[in-house]
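May I ask for an example protein's residues together with how it folds?

___
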Amino acid sequence: MTSKKVLIANRGEIAIRISRAAAALGWETVAIFSEDDSDSKHRYYANQAFPIPGYGSSAYLNADRILRIASEQGCSLIHPGYGFLSENADFVRECDRAGVTFIGPTEEIVRNLGNKLGALRLAESLQISVLPGTRKPTELSQVEDFFDQHGSLMIKALAGGGGRGMCRIESPDRIREEFSRCSSEAKAAFGNGELYVEKLLLNARHIEIQILGDGTGNVLHFWERDCTLQRRNQKLIEVCPAPNLAPLIRDKIVDSALRLARNLKYRSLGTFEFLLDENSEGDFYFIEANPRLQVEHTVTEEALGVDLVELQLRIAEGGTLKEFGLNQETISKPKGFAIQLRLNAETIDEKGNVQPSAGRLSVFEPSSGPGIRVDTAAYTGYAMNPSFDPLLAKLIIRTQSSEFKNAVSLARRTLREFRIQGSKTNQSFLNHLLRLSEMEEYKVYTGLIDENFARLAFQVDEEKVGFGFESNHKNEGSAEPETHEIPLGTIPVLSPVSGRMTEIDVVAGDFVRKGQKVAVVSAMKMEHLLKANESGIVEAVLVSPGKNVSVDQAILVLRPSEEEGPSHEDILSHEIDFVRTDLQDVLNRLSLNEDSSRPQAVSKRHKRGQRTARENVADLCDPGTFVEYGALAIAAQRRRRSLEELIKLSPADGLVTGIGSVNGDLFDSSLTKCAVLAYDYTVFMGTQGAMNHKKTDRLLQVAKNLKLPLVFFTEGGGGRPGEVDVPAVAGLDLHTFRQYSELSGAAPRIAVASGRCFAGNAALFGSSDIRIATKDSNIGMGGPVMVKGGGLGNFSAEEIGSAEIQSKNGVIDLVVENEIEAVRAAKRSLAYFQGKVEAFSCKDQRLLRSIVPENRLRSYDVRALIEILSDEDSVLELRSGFSPGIVTAFIRIEGRPIGLVANHSMHLGGAIDAEGAEKAADFMKLCESFRLPILSLCDTPGFMVGPDAERLALVRKAGRLFQEGAGLKVPFFTIVLRKGYGLGAMAMAGGSFHSPVFTISWPSGEFGAMGIEGEIRTGYQKELAEVKDWNERQLLFERLVKEAYERGKAINMASYLEIDAVIDPADSRKWILRGLASEIS
């Protein structure tokens, strides 16, 4: 083999790797290095090394200079490594023109694959699945349009790899900023800032196939690598082979890669990459091909025992696979596993941002031993350069074990043996990652690291990395900034990051004001401004532009000046009222949501005697407290309407959501926070669109996390057709209704309906804890269109679920005149869950002594009794139109909120029927859920009986009343007003007269195991039958009833201790207050 000379157009560990492979073939090598990279070890592994002008990545992208050096030094080949010029088709062309062999694919292949889109188009032509995406260099507006159509997406650089120029977008608000960042990052890394986008695939594994071709159509594969473990799209750990990959799926992915490579007549090494959808039955998608040597080629080399770089060099020399004796059968399947860990020199701030770390390595001792490989260009004394990729070393382990957990264990141990001091690294981060339970079982996906970033980055080390044996070096793991003696009486201006000094705006002797910009540091493609922390004279400038600096390194020193004058911020303070263009754009857009910008819609609403959604929200919340969530949402109909039209037609997508304070005049601010949602009937008739479902879900999540009560104005027509931007068939997988129901018992949910409330809107109304409706409401699980569509007839909205009907059947708790009253009712209802009010009054309690008639057979109005017993204006009755035999209400006693359940003798004599049992049980459950004490006013002859009563499922509903009573944990009090008979009375006392905090009776109380008359007829049936004369039998019956009544009087009942006391009715409030105080204490 004739001697060859190759120029290596790269740096660091990959330049060393190529130098070694070339040397093994007897080739000479030429290295290059930038002005700020002269200390990199790669230059010493080559036969010759030459500087190239420039700093950082830009120097290694200087194609003309590199080709000139190759020509001057007689190089017949150029190896680009990875990154930099490795996927630049123009550079390949220039190499060809210069008569220098480019070690890699042909110009045509690089051009087709290097910009990613050519590869996607090829895959589509071969019927290989790809994700939806753009197929040309994409502008910002096109990215926004794609998001509108497909939702979450990935922005990707057309050229290059390594995760640069890539970003995951799940919110349209981030598109503009991230598009610009990705373009700049790609331009800096690869010399090409063009981007494209594709649909984001969640819960995916990243599988890539290593290919080698000789340009004749003959290609081989070296099996697969799993590169799923990525941080912000940059690979951290690679595994070969992919654990837990079904053989059939592996074969299909390999076949797809081979088909692509053969079609191209691929030459050299290449990698074809796929995403495997873990939520499917093996669906996978081709995403890109990398026509170059990959960073992770080393893990394949270790798993298979091959030298891929040497094979690449031999192919470049003009050889064929057949000449090398290589075919697929000669490439054995991997035995065991190999794992590669990328050790990076980097720091992580409290926000999770990653930056290259600077500093000089005081200790660098790589792990060693059987099954361990380290590729690196670092050494003890090496000064880290934050202008380049922070990759410090690639640590690769291999094991013959078929148990992947054994490979993970070896990787952890080997990582801990690696000693690095003097610069911060991700060594601990990788250690934490290897300790995840998902790692040993390899149940991973591309988002695993990003979703667990905080605990991986900041958890306490339980296993010390770097082995803590004694050393003469500091083991601080941090960069030590260059130090300068700071003169006495001066103040240093420090660099906030490690990076390169790009600007110095002052010289010694300049006067600067506090807050004035004095310098700029560039790090990770971002510019960081340094400002004077005091006014003064610049004593000295310690760093010159172009130099690397460390975190907290002094850039210049100031001598504070005694000169009086405003600070730089003070000088700019006159601009405090200035509104920037970006802010004005937001303000203009938000103003379009306001009622003042929609006079026609508001006028139409007012003509119907109704208010707008925003008027209701403003009335509900205390002034100035409401903050709106999701105000910029519009209907998901951008494919059928223009943006301008949608902004006009669907402000806030027909749903006002946010957080405010309610009843701040009565309670401390800590008790008044409330989540508020209001469907806007002026927007598509208050229907539920895709975006307002998303808004609902978001606010429900906030309400759950913050344990906020919730008021929901639910007027609207249910689901909205025509939402063409959302890919769905039926939309039955949304979470709104489940999320809303999951709030049950967490915090009160109050719903308000006015006008028409159908379908999904009605479902939310019906799921609420307290339901308020105006008298003109129509509420139903389906509106006129749905009824007609079901073949059930033609009905107007007014004929479906009127407030009168829904009040009588218990759907509505409170029927009010209009929305003004509805908001008042909502505020009043909410107040019972917010706590005690300080101001109260009550009527003369002696009025209670005569409220129950002396005639035991005469009915009376228990509501009048409740009004006297309670604080004035504190009674709020719920479901008054439903089951009139039971009264349920919120009341206050000396300002304390209490739930009240009472029998009403004017309906069925106070007997508890099926609906009454249901009503009482529901109310007890509500009070128990929100820790409201309950007062029961008992006056019942028992449960209703008879065939008609049983047709309404009385047994089941009575049983539920007992269950709810037995389950009460809140303070429960029972006062027997008159009748306390049988099971009905026991149910009114929570199941037993000894269950409540107290069970007391007024003097009018009477008790029995069942109704007295029924008891006598049953117990004395024989005696009564023996009296033949009807008049005498009646006299006997009346005597027995009288005797039984005497036995059942309250005084006698108390003497047997079956009740706790017989009291003066005027003392009822005192007993209730004592009961509350005893429970609290």
